Amino acid sequence: GEDVEQSLFLSVREGDSSVINCTYTDSSSTYLYWYKQEPGAGLQLLTYIFSNMDMKQDQRLTVLLNKKDKHLSLRIADTQTGDSAIYFCAESIQGGKLIFGQGTELSVKP
Amino acid sequence: GAVVSQHPSWVICKSGTSVKIECRSLDFQATTMFWYRQFPKQSLMLMATSNEGSKATYEQGVEKDKFLINHASLTLSTLTVTSAHPEDSSFYICSARSELAGVYEQYFGPGTRLTVT
Question: Which of A56, A57, A91, B72 measures 20 to 30 Å from B78, CA to CA?
Fold first, then answer.
């Protein structure tokens, strides 16, 4: 079945770059998404990438997609304390459903 | 744009009672909405797909008689937890799917924290 894997924790210093990695299994996924969740809140869509793209950049966010290896990454440049949150990657499957990874808890230390 | 609201944001109910949670897309129409459940420190688990004007499609292992879903209009879906028990306590999140220029995006509500005592 479909599966999405992420590392659980990442700790960086303020100002450094953060790279959150994700692997997925469904090669037919059309879109891959990155969401941010702050404590007690819903999910905020950060960015997405279409499966025929290799890279997408949006301000401090860069998404890299290696479709051959089914590997997705999110790079946050100049990470700030306000970026501390849980980041979920998700792949879209048939019917528009999203399969989420376990979430990566990003901790940004001043 | 693309705002999804949920009501209530939190609710405490007694075991055996029923609770209704509303999910609204405020500035777009959503023919498809999704309901998720999230346990502390865990990922989102898809419960069901809610389609406007038709029956919801439930994921394997989700009791349709326990979690009643109604998608009465293009901007409103409701989830009713019937005869709630403490094990139903969880964070319930809905999302609404928007299509713009052929691109599908899912926007999530802020979630509803349900505590069953």
Answer: A91
